[in-house]
Amino acid sequence: MKGPKILLKKIGHYTYHQYARFCNVPLENLIALLVVCQILDFILTYLGVSQFGISREGNPLLRSLMYQYNPVSVLFVVKCLAIMLLYFIRDAYGKSKKDLQFIIPCLHVILIVYTVGAIIPWTIVLLLKI
Known about the structure:
The protein is mainly α. The protein has one domain. 75% of the residues lie in helices and 3% in strands. A two-stranded antiparallel ribbon has the order 1-2. The chain is elongated and about 45 Å long.
């Protein structure tokens, strides 16, 4: 057999090869997805807080800031800071292959956690009016 052999270790139910292909998403695409998540979370949080009150916000820091200041202003500032951090990560660490091997899987995890911890819960609350 010519060429390198692909090591097929299991990572959960994915093989190493499948996981490596999954993590091979360009950094720009991943950043764009995370920016879309920030915008979607802004909209969903605004709708949820305006319909059900500030007490429904799950993040204690955001909740306390929303009680002290205008909720829309707090959301806007926090989301802008998050987006700026994403672009800082891209500019500071998106150049070397070694950095990308660490950052891209981390951003995947952030995307999954953010979707499961913020987007889906607010969507369920708003749809079911819980």
